[in-house]
UniProtKB/TrEMBL annotation:
Protein known as: Cytochrome P450
Keyword terms, alphabetized: Heme, Iron, Metal-binding, Monooxygenase, Oxidoreductase
Pathway: Secondary metabolite biosynthesis
Cofactor: heme
Family listed: Belongs to the cytochrome P450 family.
Species of origin: Heliocybe sulcata
Coiled coil feature spans: none
Amino acid sequence: MSFVAASVSFAIVLIGFTAILNRLVQEASRLKELPGPPSPSRIAGHALDLQLAPVGTRYPAWAKEYGRTYRLHGAFTERHLVLGDPKGISHVLSTRASNYVRPNTDRIVLGLWFGQGLFTAEGDEHAKQRKILNPAFTYQSIQDISHIFQQLGDRLIQQWETALADKDSTTFDIAPALHALTLDAISMSMFMHDTSTTSGSVPISDLLHNITNAPRGNMLTLFLGSIVSMFPHLLSLPSPMKKWATTLRGELGKIAESVWSGTKNDIGLDAKLLKLLSHCECESLRLPGSLTLTAAQQIIGVLFAGSESSANVISETLYELGRHQHVQQKLRLELLEFEQASGHAASFDDLMNPATLPYIDAVIREALRLKAVLMDIARAVADDIIPLQFPVAGTGATSVRVEAGQSVMIPVRDGINSDEGIWGSDAREFRPERWLDNDIPEAVASIQAQGHTLTFGHGPKVCLGRTFAIAEIKMVVAAVVRRFSVEDAGVALDFYHLGGNTVKPKIRGREEEGVQLPLRVRSL
């Protein structure tokens, strides 16, 4: 290493340590009045433990001991407010949402992956972009393209039948095919582009896999993350994540340009979305042709977010159906009886109407509650006082004062979606009947988000593609259950918090093999 390079490296490390020391001083007095678990590490705090531990082993235990509102130690003694209180959550995500923005590090990373689009926008800019995109995600728009979900479901069935060949049953990892399906569902329905036929230097599915399945933590990444949050320009330095993100944006950008310049239908989600994007107020930021930079970034963001979340929920729904055969059989019976009575397979409208097919609605609602893709929702705060529904354990306080720059973490999958004090003692069990038997505790109504879960978020940043995702999940699950029996593969799975703030499965004792979700599939 040259003297100049060594000097630059030393300067970066020195600046990083100086900034971290300043943070230590600022954080020392914050949230001291709240209970919370002792820090397992003076350097990593709870951050590394949260990233490496299996899902379901940390947040529930802490909430049981310290209540719904407590503090955690982040890297370098940064203190996080963990908020599992329904009233407090509604305050942060909805009532006073303008006071709570995505943390700087999150916006930096999202900007690296997708550019400055809906994911990174805040305040008036976010509202403007939502207003542009909202009309493309109405129920009618999703109905217009629902035949694509059916086509992709048929394609999946053919793939699985080929895998079965002449065998009665076989075991394989269902995750890759489902991720390919949901990426195609987004690209074909919104942009009339089939990514499975796209030729590129690196397959888009591989790039998404690299980013979303990246291991979450070690001491070095924690240190670098802390420095990057304070000095964003350091992201210009070479790294594997930057290389993947740059290549991903390049490949998806090619699709965006191809889509924009191609011939479009006059109806359907793709036509509406592209027409809306063509009127966005960003004429000064243009790519070659007529595609604006903002439009390209929105297309890239939609492709990523929609495919990743839906694939995970479909995979875990089938996993739970394999573990709960009585639920799967009841669901299959509902679909078959409907088909016999009506003379046709369940359509988009049939599947989306709880009165027509109540059990599949209950199954998917339960999967969305218990198998939420998001581990948590993070926000950085302005000075504020957060009201609470449940008093702080030990002090009885009914509010928490927060200072500008502090971090709020709202556990979703292991938090309010499965809180036993709200949902009952079986909150962590997969039981679709809870949605049918008038067995929802009154306390659930205190979760003011749509559907009484935070799976799609809440407030101004609630998921734009909620209806799209639910329709896709229902149609794919119905297609699979109608043609196959899915069964437990006989291996124990643990779920981990991986890259992209998503939850992915690994085989216990074989974690080094990476993400996989094996199921035994049997032809009916």
